[in-house]
Amino acid sequence: MLEIKNLKASVDGNPILNGIDFSVKAGEVHAIMGPNGSGKSTLASVLAGNEAYEVSEESSIEFLGEDLLDMPAEERARLGMFLAFQYPVEIKGITNSYFLKAAVNEIRQSRGMDELDQMDFNELLKEKMDQINVDLAFADRDVNFGFSGGEKKRNEILQLAVMEPRLAILDETDSGLDIDALRIVSDGVNSLRTPNRAFIVITHYQRLLDHIVPDFVHVIYKGRIVKSGGKELALELEEKGYDWLKETDQATVSA
Amino acid sequence: MANTITAVPRDHFINDLAGVTQNGSPAWLGALREKGKQSFVATEFPHTKMEEWRQTNISTVVKTPFRSLTASTDHGLSADSVAAYFYAPDTWTELVFVDGFFDAALSKQNTLPKGVVAGGLNAAIHDSHPAVEKHLNQHVGDRNAYTALNAAFLQDGAFVYVPKKVVVETPIHLVFVSSTAAKDAAAHIRNLIVLEESAQANIVVSYRNAASNATYLNNVVDEVVVGANANLHWYKLVEEGAGGNHLNTLAVAQSRDSRFRGFSFSLEGAVIRNQICLALEGPGAECSLEGLYLNDGERLIDNALTITHKAPNCQSRIGYKGILDDKSKSVFTGFVHVHQEAQQTDSDQLSQNLLLSDHATIDTKPQLEIYADDVKCTHGATVGSPPEEVIFYFRSRGIDEKTARGMLTYAFADDVAGEVEIDEVSKRLDRWVYEKYSPKF
């Protein structure tokens, strides 16, 4: 589904990703871990199409058989890419319901489907709200406006549920959540796992992976994947901490 | 003075005064007009070296030799052609003024409570309505050359009178239509609204264009008197033609415990200047001035608001929003003057502007002059466009940039439309904003 080759990206001339390779198949859950500043969030932004990052000519990303790098962000979303933001923006004056209806209809339009009218959309929204257990009042509140940190993250998961992407990237969705909020968010994600849908779960903390169990774990450091493995790799990291990476890195350099 | 613009010679306007019928006018009105004429002769046309007009360059108006309309025009408008301007002709009183003169035949007059007058000012003058002589030209003062001209040419406009304790439930709509007969002409329109003690009314004022792209000027002076404990909601919608210029001074005098809520919507027109001079003259009076201006092309929109707190325990609110596109020029001034006696004044103002183009400009400034020591006055202004991260958020949900900007602009403006308490007006504004910024969904 997703094939990343030699991904190099920089911002304002500062290299952040220095050659990332990995691939994701339908139904898989990949966790990406790493210390602060290692390039985790940059990877998410580049995948979603944030033009603030400059991607090297040598890099290639294929998503569902299409070349992703020349594709504008909105087309990636229409194709089935979803990013749950680390810091979702607040949009005053636009309700969740209005925003999501616009998003869903853009996607339907791009796929040659009829737009949903208000009634059909309301039905869809209510069903998804029930599924991931969010308060129905969310629909009429302005997008993230005045939301608590936990509410914002839940709102991202609600959008995920409504937009039904093929690939969902969760960028530190767990950061700053208390255990109850974390449970709600991860239960939501787990209920959205299907054989057709893949997840890339970016996290700083191993705790999230107790709730969302990954098939693969990748450790990213200084813009490279330095280690990949199964879910037990997360536990190893938990035990040894990220300092272990830094030591390994120095050892590699001196070797 | 080689670099200053050439204003039209004063005589050009003075000569047209001959067309004003003095026959049958009461003596006091003749004196009022003569005073206006003298004031006009002694007052410079606005130019950008005058402090009040520093950012407001109306030279396109000043140098146009408008002829002044002094009688009803041969406008050729029919009931059918004005029907589109009505909101609810079956229930509201909707008065039509064409090129500044009241047209009873085109108007819809539904039953109003006893003692309420809603019609042409000229008729009220000839009927010797006592409120006319008492209030006419008593509240506006000498503001500028155009208000002076307005007094010199004073003949017609709207007159609304609501007696003590009378509540007018259905809105009264004043529709000012500019016809093709107004081409290259100035209509000097005077409106007088008087609410006596504990009276209540909603007045909607529309400026509509049936003059196609013709150049014209509506030079409007409104005098609004809100008696003790009275309550007036005022909705003004400027929908002039592309060549329509609109210069307006609205003077509001509020007695004790009165409430005035004034909305101003500048939607279409070449040069639009809305000056509001509001005086809180008695204790406990409250006012709220809210507005929305949609500026684009190379148009000029100026909102110049002055609120004078003359008495204690009064409250004033200002909340204006502007959407600024293309090479448009906008000016917003919120001047709050608090007299020494006006203790416990509570005043705030907020000017919010959405920039859609790098070439649009806005000059927004609060001015506070406070002589009392126990007051609460706040002010704020914002100018900006949606941050890139907000646009990216939309795009990451499949919504392209153009649609995102449309949705955000619509949301920004529609917020003000949502404050309007009259459904018909709220819907019209909503449609205006929706069609102009086409958010698509």
Description:
The complex is a heterodimer of chains A (255) and B (441). Chain A has 255 residues and is an alpha/beta fold. Chain A has helices at residues 40-48, 73-79, 96-110, 118-131, 149-163, 179-191, 208-211, 232-240, 243-254; strands spanning 2-11, 14-24, 29-33, 54-55, 60-63, 66-67, 81-84, 167-171, 198-203, 216-221, 224-229. In chain B, the strands form 2 sheets. In chain B, strands 1, 4, 5, 7, 9, 11, 13, 15, 17 and 19 form a 10-stranded mixed sheet that branches. Chain B has 2 domains: 10-281, no CATH class; 387-441, no CATH class. The model of chain B has no long low-confidence stretch (mean pLDDT 95). Chain B has helices at 10-16, 27-42, 59-62, 79-83, 121-126, 130-135, 145-152, 388-395, 401-417, 423-437, and strands spanning 67-68, 93-98, 101-102, 117-120, 158-162, 172-179, 185-195, 200-210, 216-226, 231-239, 244-254, 259-268, 271-280, 286-295, 300-309, 315-324, 329-338, 345-355, 361-370, 375-384. Chain B starts with 9 loop residues before the first helix and ends with a helix. Chain B has 441 residues and is α/β, with parallel strands linked by helices. Classes of the chains: A alpha/beta (255), B alpha/beta (441). Chain A binds chain B through residues 48-50, 52, 72-74, 76-78, 82-83, 85, 88-89, 91-94, 98-103, 105-107, 110, 159, 163, and chain B through 387-390, 392-401, 403, 407-408, 411-412, 414-415, 439-441.
